[in-house]
């Protein structure tokens, strides 16, 4: 028994046109429209992978910037708190710098060249007057050592102010 081969005209019961066209979305026309798909997966891979790598690199850069800015802000808050507990302005400056240095070192911060300013002018005021200690930290964040080297640096800054005990004895 020989198998009979159907022609497009015989496939009209599947939704195709009697003339063999693709008006009804028949199977005969689909094969012709698809064409050759060889190499499509590798082409898609070549297009998509660099985009994904770039996206991951940008996310890494964003994470580094956010992380360092958070660490700098936390270090400023810790330094201001430590300075407000000191008994003199000179001691407040040294304690704040020690605490900030230790905080940035402990957190393995990517903060390079930190500049620390401690305003201890509140220690000059008499007891009973409200006074504050302010700490400002600035540092640079290098981005050149990321997966995709981003040129330049970004500056991160942290500021914190803490109240000195109003009725405690103060020395400059």
Automatic annotation (TrEMBL):
Domain TadE-like stretches: 39-81
Compositional bias per record (Gly residues), positions renumbered to this chain: 16-28
Classification via Pfam families: TadE
Keyword terms: Membrane, Transmembrane, Transmembrane helix
Protein name: TadE-like protein
Positions of transmembrane segments: 45-66
Sequence segments annotated as region (Disordered): 1-33
């Amino acid at each position: 028994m020989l198998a009979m081969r159907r022609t497009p005209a015989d496939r009209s019961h599947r939704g195709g046109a009697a003339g063999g066209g693709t008006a009804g979305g028949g199977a005969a026309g689909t094969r012709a429209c698809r064409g050759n798909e060889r190499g499509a997966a590798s082409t898609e891979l070549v297009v998509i992978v660099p985009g994904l790598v770039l996206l991951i690199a940008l996310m890494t850069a964003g994470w580094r910037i956010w992380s360092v800015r958070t660490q700098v802000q936390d270090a400023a808050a810790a330094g201001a708190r430590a300075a407000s507990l000191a008994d003199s302005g000179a001691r407040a400056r040294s304690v704040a710098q020690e605490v900030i240095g230790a905080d940035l070192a402990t957190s393995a911060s990517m903060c390079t060249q930190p500049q620390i300013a401690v305003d201890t002018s509140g220690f000059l005021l008499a007891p009973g007057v409200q006074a504050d200690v302010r700490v400002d930290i600035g540092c640079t964040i290098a981005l050149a050592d990321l997966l995709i080297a981003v040129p330049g640096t970004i500056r991160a800054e942290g500021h914190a102010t803490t109240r000195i005990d109003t009725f405690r004895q103060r020395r400059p």
